[in-house]
Amino acid sequence: MVGSGRMGGWAVLSAAGMLALSPAIAQAETLADAIALAYQTNPTLQSERAQLRALNESYVQARAGFRPQVSGSAEYDYSKSPSTYETEVDNASATLSVTQPIYTGGLVTAQVRAAMADILSGRQKLRQTEAQVMQQVILAYVDVRRDQEALRIAQDNVSVLNRQLDETKARFDVGQITRTDVAQSEARLAQAQAQLANAMAQLGVSRAGYVAVIGQSPGELAQEPELTAVPATIDEAFAIADKNNGGILAADFAEQGAAARVAEAKSANRPTVSIRAGIGASSTLQESKSLSFGLVKLGVYQENVTASAVLTQPLFTGGLNSSRIREALEDENVQRIAIETARRTAVQQVSQAWNQLLAARAGAVSNQKQVDADQVAWEGTRQEAQVGLRTTLDVLNAEQELHNAQLALVNSKHDQYVASAGLLNAMGRLEVKYLDASIKPYDPEKAFNRVKGGGALPLDIPISTIDGLGSPHVSKPPPQGPMVTAAPVTAPPSAPAQAGSTVMP
């Protein structure tokens, strides 16, 4: 079975490579199709969701501290002692005990708060993972689209140079040009054929990447839709990231969990109260046999019922509790500092993505103008060459410039879309609800609600209320101010950014 699984995986990858060389599939796939498939089947996402569902159980386990613990035991012993008095003893006993915590010094309350904070932080990490996978899907999709277009341009280039070589040979045959012109045409055609081979190989690589992320080989891909959630200004991007960036929110919840663990450590110095009840029964049967008294049997049966209230107050722990409190406080400091680290990372990501987006936009506009101009120049150079005003090398150079400009335009459009996705990721907006409203998002709250009430008893509410009385307070750090950013500068005039758009230096 393992071998067949491996063969199946290699078959998929082999199919991806074959598709790179095969004719395009008639039915086009869309980016929405790719996103929907990856959202449901991507193994990275599936693993992260499973980890979060496992983390949900920590809440149930923490709340179990409010509930009674019931245990039972049974024991049977038999002994025989051959001697002057031959004795056989049968002992049987059974007990059932119940312990109900009344007050744990706030320990269980703090554990529940810490578990909930961990779960909320885990949800934000899941959001980050989903955004990363969505960005990978978009990158894989536009990589294939770019390389499909680059392959088409390379094929057109080879076709044009083939015709150019035929024309050059015909003119050479009638003595209009020299053998040098033919050699120049042949060299450019050989170069174009090498570029075509590279384009085919690159498309195969991109198709394999598509399979790895999305789970199936791409066919002919449709034009990717516009990412409408991209903001008009960088200030708007910063404001959205400050509220929605998954890294910032995950760090904030992690700090709350660390604060709860400080309270958990402090609870070790507080008293605990519990009640215990138990019932037990035991029986003993003893048989003794001797020459003087013959067979003597003695049986004893007893039952006992116990009930107690237990108050425990730690008095001296050798510095253990104090050390654990200091440790928890430093862990909380680490998590509080991590919030600022996450904020700075978000600022960096937004700034980088915004700069890349503006540069790609400007590049797309400039490259489009270059393609239009090179198209006119190439056609004019060809016509002038036919009447002897231009050489064959001039025509070849004009065609090469047009080819390079077309590739540059394809790359700049690719880079613009990738930068837009990167900006949305940094803002915390690269989610399926913004990308495709028809996809039903995974609901971690629903998965949590399915298990959070596991083992619940009517006593949970009053016991949790009592346990929360006087427990150390779990406080959140004061809210942070607006994101600190460097002074923005105006975007270059060539960039088609909207009014008010700025670029970070």
Verbal overview:
Helices cover 61% and strands 14% of the residues. By secondary structure, the protein is an alpha+beta fold. The strands form two sheets. It has a four-stranded antiparallel beta sheet with strand order 1-2-3-4. Helix 1 (2-19) packs antiparallel against helix 5 and helix 4 (107-173) runs antiparallel to helix 5 (179-214). The longest helix has 67 residues, at 107-173.
Keywords:
disordered C terminus; 6 strands; 12 helices; T1SS_OMP_TolC; porin activity; disordered N terminus; Outer membrane efflux proteins (OEP); transmembrane
Topology (elements, then pairings):
Blueprint: H1 2-19, H2 31-41, H3 43-63, E1 69-81, E2 86-103, H4 107-173, H5 179-214, H6 234-244, H7 246-266, E3 272-290, E4 294-312, H8 320-386, H9 392-427, H10 432-435, H11 444-451, H12 460-468, E5 489-490, E6 502-503
Antiparallel strand pairs: 1-2, 2-3, 3-4, 5-6
Write a concise synopsis of the structure shown.
The protein has twelve helices and six strands. It has helices at residues 2-19, 31-41, 43-63, 107-173, 179-214, 234-244, 246-266, 320-386, 392-427, 432-435, 444-451, 460-468; strands at residues 69-81, 86-103, 272-290, 294-312, 489-490, 502-503. GO terms for molecular function: efflux transmembrane transporter activity; porin activity.
Give the helix level as a range of percent: 55-70%
Main CATH class of the domain at 31-61 and 129-266 and 324-503: Mainly Alpha
* Number of distinct helices: 12
* Low-pLDDT stretches: 1-27, 477-482, 484-505
Keywords: Cell outer membrane, Coiled coil, Membrane, Signal, Transmembrane, Transmembrane beta strand, Transport
Family: Belongs to the outer membrane factor (OMF) (TC 1.B.17) family.
Coiled coil: 151-202
Protein name: TolC family outer membrane protein
